[in-house]
């Protein structure tokens, strides 16, 4: 079973839990997810199935989009609602102070990951050390926040939308925004609405997937033709297809200035991801033999 599946992850499950569930439902053993979601978060969790798992490296830098809520007045140990309260309860900030603090948290910023995160320190997950109350020192990393917008207010709770680069922690943004606005804050509910080209519009709940009959999975999958749209699609004639299938270079008739192309057979089957060597000559990087 080759393709991508967009799962609408429910709260309370890890991303790995979802992979295990889909393995049981589909019978496909080779499944990987594209970007971990915290257990408390919901929304878009793209999975690659079968031979399409070999494409995972091309999805590493996909932009992500979230909608959620930031609750002002109290910080927590995990920067979200699952953590223990930290510090005093403070008055919620004036919305104008929040608006004034937002620009500094947009663009390229240095962000310190939460102590309770999956980042590794000397081979150990940071959250494992934090739970044992051992020192956790995570170096700040540069991330890009393309959008950080307040959508509305409900008492001390702000509804927000965030578009950001991979590796960005929205709960860290919530924590930092609380401090910058002269108060404290933590992340409440969070829903991921997009990962690159994968959106909620084509997502499936686990309940809906459980109702799919054996042999009917094609309708739920995003076909290979729709994956990696930034790489031009090229149809290889038989002679070129035979060479690429053997790992050899081949001339493609519809070459592009793009360094990478998706190569298909005339019957729409993904044959390879190929890199341009020169002109119309391409070298396969990944081959999907029949």
Which SSEs are present, and which pair or pack?
Layout: E1 3-9, H1 15-26, E2 31-33, E3 42-49, E4 64-72, E5 75-76, E6 85-86, H2 95-101, E7 107-111, E8 120-121, E9 124-125, H3 126-131, E10 141-154, E11 157-164, H4 170-180, E12 185-195, E13 198-199, H5 206-210, E14 233-235, H6 238-245, E15 250-251, E16 260-264, E17 270-278, E18 281-287
Parallel strand pairs: 3-12, 14-16
Antiparallel strand pairs: 1-3, 2-3, 4-11, 4-12, 5-6, 7-10, 8-9, 10-11, 12-13, 15-18, 16-17, 17-18
Describe this structure in words.
By secondary structure, the chain is of the alpha+beta class. It has 3 domains: about 5-60 and about 195-225, 2-Layer Sandwich (Pseudouridine synthase), CATH 3.30.2350.10; about 65-195, Pseudouridine synthase (2-Layer Sandwich), CATH 3.30.2350.10; about 230-285, PUA domain (Archaeosine Trna-guanine Transglycosylase, Chain: A, domain 4), CATH 2.30.130.10. It has 6 helices and 18 strands. The protein has helices spanning about 15-25, 95-100, 125-130, 170-180, 205-210, 240-245, and strands spanning about 5-10, 30-35, 40-50, 65-70, 75, 85, 105-110, 120, 125, 140-155, 155-165, 185-195, 200, 235, 250, 260-265, 270-280, 280-285. Strand 2 (about 30-35) and strand 3 (about 40-50) form a beta hairpin. The radius of gyration is 22 Å and the shape is elongated.
